[in-house]
C-alpha cells in the first residue's frame, strides 16, 4: 500500500490509528515533514519543576472537548465542533466524527493530519496524533506539557485547542490548521532567503504579541524559530510546538510611566511644544522563572542556556533577536560550521555583527531593525531588552513605530512570494505598517467614488480634466436651452 493510500485507508477507518505504513521519508509533495534544512530542537535534561505529570494510562477513549476558553463567536470551527457534538450521543467529540484528509507533517513527537468533521466539512482542522507507546518517558512528559499549555491558550496568534482525545495508546489534539506552512519554508522561497523590512516588522510584531501573552501566563517558550511559526490561511501567524515550555509564577503589575509627546500643541513663539503625559502600563513578565535544562535549537540558544548556569524569561527575548536577524539576513548570527562551533560562537559573543556588502542599499527601517537586534542579543540577560519589563519595552522600540498593537489582527499581511492569503470578506484590512489603507486600496476607493460621482452628475467629477469637460458640456447644454 503506498503512502497516500494508507492515509486514505486511515481516513476511512475511524479508530485505526496504526501509522506503521506511513513513512516519514516520503517524497510526496503534499507532506511537509520538516526539510533537512530545518533545525531540530535539543533537550539535554529536565530537572526543573515541570508542569504536573498526570498519568497517561487511559486505554479507553476519553473525549474531552474544551468549551472554555477559546470560544469565540466569530470562529466557524467552534460552530462546526458544536454542531457535531450536539448530535453526538454523549455530547462529546470522538475520532469517528473526524475525516482524515492527508498527512501534513511529522515531528519528534507525532504526526499532524489535515482533517475535517464528517458532517460539517467546511472547516479544516489539524489533528496531531502521538503514539505514546513509541515514546520515552522524557518525550511523554513533553507531550503532557504541550497538551496542558494548549488547553490554557486563548490568543489569535496561538493555536485553539478544540478537543483533546486519549484513545488507546494515542493522544490526539484537534487544533487550527495552517495551510501556509511555516516561516522557515516561506523564508527559503524568498530571494537570498530574506524578507523585506516591512514583512519582518509584521511577522515579528505578531510573534512579540504571542510571546507577551505566554509570558503573562508565566510560560517561557524556549523554542522560538521560524520552523515553529506557522501561517494561517489569512496570512497571520500561529506559534506552535509547546513541548519545551516551562512555567513559573508571575506577579503582574501596573506601572506608571511619563511619556513625552512631541508636536501635539503649537506654541506661537517656541514652535512645537513637548507635552508630558502619564501612561499606565501592564507588565506581566516571569522575571523569576528559572530552569537549568538545556533545551532549544542550537542557533537560537541564549548564552545563559549554553553555559548551563540556569536561565529564565530572557532566553525568549534573545531568540526573538535571532529570529529578526534571520528573517532579515537569511541566516542566523552565530552559525558556525558545526553545532559545537555555533555554541562556541554564542558563548564567546561580544555583540552581534552585521555584514554589509560594499555599495549595498540599506532598506528604510533597517537601521532600527539592527538597533533592536543589538539590544536583544546582549549577552548579559540583566541588560537585555525585554528581560525586566517584557514586551512592553520592546513594543516601544522605533522598529515597531506606527504599529497599532490592538489592531494588528486586522492588518493586511505583507505581499510575500509564496504566501497565499485568503481575504476575509467581513474584515476591513488595513496596511500592516501605518495602519492606513494601502495606495492600491486608496486607488480603488477613488475609482469607485469617481464612478459613483459620474453616475450622479458630471459636474462633480473628481478628475481635474473630467471636471473641465463636464464644465464645458454643462455650459454647452445650458447655452442650448
Ligand atoms: N496546525 C498545523 N497546521 C498545519 N501544519 C502543522 C500544524 N501543526 C504542525 N504542523 C506541521 O506538522 C509538523 C510537525 O508538527 P509539530 O512540530 O507540532 O510536531 P512535533 O512532533 O511536536 O515536532 P518537534 O520535532 O518540533 O517537537 C510541523 O513541521 C508542521 O509543519
TrEMBL record:
Chain intervals with Low complexity compositional bias: 52-64
Pfam (any one): Pkinase
Region (Disordered): 52-74
Keywords carried by this UniProt record: ATP-binding, Kinase, Nucleotide-binding, Serine/threonine-protein kinase, Transferase
Boundaries of every Protein kinase domain copy: 98-400
Domain of life per record: Eukaryota
EC number: 2.7.11.1
Protein's UniProt keywords contain Ribonucleoprotein: no
Keyword ATP-binding: yes
Reactions performed catalytically: L-seryl-[protein] + ATP = O-phospho-L-seryl-[protein] + ADP + H(+); L-threonyl-[protein] + ATP = O-phospho-L-threonyl-[protein] + ADP + H(+)
InterPro entries, per database record: Kinase-like_dom_sf, Prot_kinase_dom, Ser/Thr_kinase_AS
Family per record: Belongs to the protein kinase superfamily. AGC Ser/Thr protein kinase family.
Name by which UniProt lists this protein: non-specific serine/threonine protein kinase
Species the sequence originates in: Rehmannia glutinosa
Amino acid at each position: 500500500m503506498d503512502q497516500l493510500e494508507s492515509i486514505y485507508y486511515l481516513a476511512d477507518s475511524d479508530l485505526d490509528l496504526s501509522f506503521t505504513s506511513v513513512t516519514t521519508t516520503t517524497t510526496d509533495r503534499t507532506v511537509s515533514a520538516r526539510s533537512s534544512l530545518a533545525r531540530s530542537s535539543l533537550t539535554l535534561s529536565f530537572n526543573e519543576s515541570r508542569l504536573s505529570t498526570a498519568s497517561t494510562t487511559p486505554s479507553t477513549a476519553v473525549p474531552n472537548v474544551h468549551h472554555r476558553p477559546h470560544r469565540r463567536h466569530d470562529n466557524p470551527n467552534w460552530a462546526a465542533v458544536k454542531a457535531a457534538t450536539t448530535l453526538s450521543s454523549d455530547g462529546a467529540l470522538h475520532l469517528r466524527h473526524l475525516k482524515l484528509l492527508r498527512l501534513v507533517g511529522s515531528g519528534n513527537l507525532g504526526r499532524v493530519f489535515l482533517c475535517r468533521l464528517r458532517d460539517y466539512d467546511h472547516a479544516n482542522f489539524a489533528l496531531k496524533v502521538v503514539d505514546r507507546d513509541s515514546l520515552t518517558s522524557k518525550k511523554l512528559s513533553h507531550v503532557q506539557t504541550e497538551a496542558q499549555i494548549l488547553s490554557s491558550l486563548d490568543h489569535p496568534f496561538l493555536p485553539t485547542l478544540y478537543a483533546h482525545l486519549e484513545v488507546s495508546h494515542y493522544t490526539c489534539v484537534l487544533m487550527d490548521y495552517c495551510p501556509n506552512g511555516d516561516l522557515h519554508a516561506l523564508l527559503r522561497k524568498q530571494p537570498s532567503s530574506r524578507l523585506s523590512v516591512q514583512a519582518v516588522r509584521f511577522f515579528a510584531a505578531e510573534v512579540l504579541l504571542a510571546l507577551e501573552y505566554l509570558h503573562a501566563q508565566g510560560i517561557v517558550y524556549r523554542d522560538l524559530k521560524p520552523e515553529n511559526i506557522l501561517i494561517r490561511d489569512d496570512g497571520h501567524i500561529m506559534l506552535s510546538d509547546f513541548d519545551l515550555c516551562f512555567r513559573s509564577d508571575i506577579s503582574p503589575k501596573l506601572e506608571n510611566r511619563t511619556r513625552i509627546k512631541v508636536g501635539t500643541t503649537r506654541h506661537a513663539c517656541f514652535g512645537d511644544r513637548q507635552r508630558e503625559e502619564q501612561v499606565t502600563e501592564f507588565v506581566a513578565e516571569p522575571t523569576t522563572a528559572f530552569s537549568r535544562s538545556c533545551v532549544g535549537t542550537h542557533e537560537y540558544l541564549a548564552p545563559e542556556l549554553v553555559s548551563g548556569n540556569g536561565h529564565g524569561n530572557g532566553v525568549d527575548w534573545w531568540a526573538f533577536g535571532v529570529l529578526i536577524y534571520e528573517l532579515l539576513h537569511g541566516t542566523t548570527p552565530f552559525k558556525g560550521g558545526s553545532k559545537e562551533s555555533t555554541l562556541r560562537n554564542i558563548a564567546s559573543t561580544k555583540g552581534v555583527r552585521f555584514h554589509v556588502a560594499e555599495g549595498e542599499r540599506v532598506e528604510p527601517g533597517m537601521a532600527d531593525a539592527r538597533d533592536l537586534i543589538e539590544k536583544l542579543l546582549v549577552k548579559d540577560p540583566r541588560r537585555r531588552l525585554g528581560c525586566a519589563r517584557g514586551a512592553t519595552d520592546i513594543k516601544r522600540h522605533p522598529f515597531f513605530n506606527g504599529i497599532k498593537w490592538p489592531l494588528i489582527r486586522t492588518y493586511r499581511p505583507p505581499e510575500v512570494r509564496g504566501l497565499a492569503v485568503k481575504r476575509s470578506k467581513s474584515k476591513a484590512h488595513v496596511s500592516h505598517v501605518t495602519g492606513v489603507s494601502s495606495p492600491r486600496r486608496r486607488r480603488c476607493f477613488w475609482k469607485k467614488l469617481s464612478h459613483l460621482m459620474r453616475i450622479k452628475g458630471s459636474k462633480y467629477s473628481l478628475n481635474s480634466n473630467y471636471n473641465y469637460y463636464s464644465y464645458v458640456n454643462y455650459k454647452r447644454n445650458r447655452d442650448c436651452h
